[in-house]
Amino acid sequence: MSPDDSTAQPLRSDAERNRGRIIAAARTVFGSDGLGASMASVARETGVGIATLFRHFPAKEDLVAAVFADRMDAYADAVDAALGDSDPWRGFTGYIEAACAMQAADYGFADVLTTTFPTAKALEKRRNEAYQAMLWLIDRAKTAGRLREDFDPADLVLMHMAVAGVVNATGEAAPDAWRRVAAYFIQSFEAPARGSLPASPEHDALYRAMLRANSTGDTAPEPSKGS
Amino acid sequence: MSPDDSTAQPLRSDAERNRGRIIAAARTVFGSDGLGASMASVARETGVGIATLFRHFPAKEDLVAAVFADRMDAYADAVDAALGDSDPWRGFTGYIEAACAMQAADYGFADVLTTTFPTAKALEKRRNEAYQAMLWLIDRAKTAGRLREDFDPADLVLMHMAVAGVVNATGEAAPDAWRRVAAYFIQSFEAPARGSLPASPEHDALYRAMLRANSTGDTAPEPSKGS
User: Fold this and answer.
1) ipTM of the complex
2) Residue A138: enclosing H or E segment and its boundaries?
3) CA distance A28 to chain B (A)
4) Which of B158, B164, B180 lies at the smallest CB-CB distance from A158?
């Protein structure tokens, strides 16, 4: 909105209308195809030329940030709700169920959870805040003796990658299959640990994996399916 | 080989040479891109025309069957080795580690484990034999009281889908991350169960999901990344 439209509903310009239409179309495209969907397919879905699309969003990350700002808010809210639960373990498992449900409902958001976008500052800021809150959630569940001591924050990223594999593979054919997988994860996270675990990936390695998920998205063939 | 070449190394015809080259190229392409790789990309990698490729392999399933015949044998051998272990639980967990390792080493084979190819008869026959042996492996581990009673054979398919998600997302950046995920699964499968589980997907639903993984491979955009 411009500074002078505080009293009346503003007439939106063509540019503003286009921007809204692009975001809505991108939400549909990312939601069904994931973040790997090309800018060209977003332009097609919107019914605008690719030049128009790039004028509004110079990089795909800008578009991703605009599309998922509200999802990221909902995600951060879920983490806050989990921290608000008086039972640390119920809070922790509630977070897992809520986050996986968001992931299952939206392929694009599933990618947001396991991909990093260094130049999408606002999105990364929200994600980092949520991550800090999640570390607190993990600490609290460990202190209460309910979460195994060797649980690593990276395990949540791995779990989301795993759930994405199930959601992508089962799709509409078995849309609730991920719930059973999430339940298995929760039971294996519960203290006391039933056995030792191979080391979790180094922070830098996992970060590279998350960058990789981003950078391969628009250009490289998908490892398991493709063009 | 033709009936008359039993004493001498046969001179292979161009057609036979081409067939061998196509299989080798397809192994490379499927191994890095998964079964979703297009027939066109296999033709490019081989350096033959698409018409030549389709003359040798009228359907992608035929090519998949030719490429993965030996992997499927190795997989069936791993199941047999697991059944040969005198300790039912060690056999069961050894199977999981071996099968996931095969999956991590070869994106294409990962897809074979979670996709069904109704018209690739020989491949499906081997897979069904391995499946029957796996049912025996599960039964044995339950009878020994080491595998939770509510474990469902479908859980192995879900686990492979989950591990595929981790392998695809981490790739070379964190190539051993799947091992930690497999260990979590094994610990959650161990008896006694730590809690109840949501119902596993119906057999028919999971079969549809496996068909879906096949049919979307060559034509539809990948849910999480894409063209």
Assistant:
1) 0.79
2) helix A121-143
3) 12
4) B180
